[in-house]
Amino acid sequence: MFGRSMKLFSLFGFEVKIDASWIIIAVLVSWSLAAGFFPYFYPHLTPKAYWVMGVIGAVGLFLSVIFHEFCHSLVARRMGLPMKGITLFIFGGVAEMGDEPPSAKVEFSMAIAGPISSLILAAVFYGIYLQGKAIGWSLPVNGVLRYLAYLNVVLAVFNLVPAFPLDGGRVLRSILWGVWNDLRRATRVSAAVGSAFGFGLVALGIFQFIGGNFIAGLWWFLIGMFIRGAAQTSYQQLLVRNALTGEPVRNFMNPHPVSVPGSITVEQLVKEYVYKYHYKMFPVLDNGDLVGCITTRQIKEVPREQWSQETIGKLADQCSLDNTISPDTDAVQALALMNKTGNSRLLVVEGHRLVGILSLKDMMEFLSLKVELEQ
Fold first, then answer.
1. CATH for 249-374, among 3.40.50.300, 3.10.580.10, 1.25.10.10, 3.30.450.40?
2. Vertex 359, ends 356 and 364: CA angle to 5°?
3. Alpha carbon distance 320, 326 (integer Å)
4. From CA 262, how far away is CA 295, in angstroms rounded?
5. How many helices (H) and strands (E) does the chain have?
6. How many angstroms separate the first and last alpha carbons of the chain?
7. Three-state secondary structure call for residue 167
8. How far is it, in rounded angstroms, from Cα 203 to Cα 199?
9. How many whole angstroms separate alpha carbon 241 and alpha carbon 339?
C-alpha cells in the first residue's frame, strides 16, 4: 500500500513511521486551511496569520491521526493481536497488523476504538477552546483549537461510514463475519461497499470541480480514489493470505538454482549468467558453501571499466535474515519478507547449504492457479 517510509519515533513499543506521501498531504492541508477554511470563517486576518494557522492545523491533524491509530493499536495488543507499528501516509494512517484479527469480536473492538478516541479528542480540544474564549485568547489561537475539535469530529464520523477499509467498514465486516462465520465473504461484501462509496466520492468531487469549488472537488476526488483502491486491494490481500497460509516455502522454491562461484569477475557474471538466465540475483558459492548473493543493482554500481578486474566474491552481500529463508517457513511470511525488503528472490537455506531459490513469480503463478480453481 505504501512507498518509502522513515521512522519518526517509538512509543509504548510501537514504531511510528511516515510515508513520503505524507509530504503531499501536509502541503495540501496547509494550503487548504490557509487559502480557504480559515479566511472563510475568520475574515480580515493577515495572510501570514492564515498560513501560521494552516501549518499549525496540519500539525494538529498529524497528531490527531497518530492518537487515533495508537488507540487502534493499544486495543489490538491488549486483545492479543500482534501490532508492528503505525505508518502515516496520504489521507491518514494505518496501524500495521502482523495478521488478520483472530475473531469478529477482536476486529470490532479494535475498529471502534479509533472513532471513539477521535470523539474524545474532539471534546478535549473544544473544552480548551471554550476556556480560551472565556479568558480572551487571541482569535487565531481559538480558531485553530475550534478547527481541531471540528476536525476530530469529522474524522470520527467519516471513519464510521460502513465502507471497508474505513473503521466503519471493519465494524461492518466484523458484524457480517460474526453472523456468517465466513471472513472471506464478509470481506468481499464490505470491500464492495467501500469500493462503491469511493466511487461516489469521486463523482462528488467531479461535480464540485465542475461547479467551481476546486479545493473541495480535489479533496473528494482524491479521497474517493484512495478508498476505492484500498477496498479492492484489501480483498485481494485476503485472497492471497488465504491461498498461501499453511503452504511451506519448499512447495514454491526452485530446488536446482543457478549459482555462481565467487572467483569469477563481474564481466563473466554479466555475459555468462545475467544475459543468459535473465535473473537479477544469483547465489554465490565457495566450495559448495553459500557465502552470499550478488544482484544486478550491485553490478550497476561498479564502473564499466572495472568489470574485468572486480570479482564477485568481493561484491557479494552476506547472507542475512533479509535475503534468506528456511524451506519450512510459511509462504505468507516469505511474501511479507519480500514486501518489506523489496527482494523478489530469496535464498532458501538449511544451515550453510543452499537448497533452493524462492521467487515472487513462482508464488504468484501458484496463487493464480489456486484462486482460479477454488473460486
1. 3.10.580.10
2. 135
3. 12
4. 13
5. 14, 10
6. 24
7. helix
8. 6
9. 13
List pLDDT tens digits, range 69-90.
Answer: 889 888 988 888 777 777 776 5
The closest of 236, 67, 77, 62 to 165, measured between CA atoms, is 236
DSSP-derived letter for residue 36 is I
Q: Alpha carbon of 180 to those of 134, 164, 183, 282, 365: distances in Å?
A: 53, 17, 8, 47, 31
Sign of torsion over alpha carbons 154, 157, 162, 165: positive
Positions of CATH 3.10.580.10 in the chain:
249-374
Q: Flag whether pLDDT at 206 surpasses 60.
A: yes
CB 222 within 8 A of CB 91: yes
CA–CA gap between residue 327 and residue 348 (Å, rounded): 6
User: What is the grid cell recorded at 221?
Assistant: 476526488
Closest Cα partner for 340 from 327, 322, 360? 322
pTM greater than 0.90 (yes/no): no
Count of residues in the chain: 375
CB 148 within 8 A of CB 57: yes
Whether residue 231 contacts residue 165, with contact meaning beta carbons closer than 8 Å, is answered with: yes
What are the pLDDT digits (tens) for 265-318? 999 999 999 999 988 889 998 887 888 889 898 899 999 999 999 999 888 888
Dump the DSSP string for 206-241.
HHHHHTT-HHHHHHHHHHHHHHHHHHHHHHHHHHHH
Distance between CA atoms of residues 366 and 375, nearest Å: 14
| Amino acid (1-letter code) at residue 134 | A
What b/e readout covers 169-184, taking b as 16+ CB neighbours within 10 angstroms?
Answer: bbbbbbbbbeeeeebe
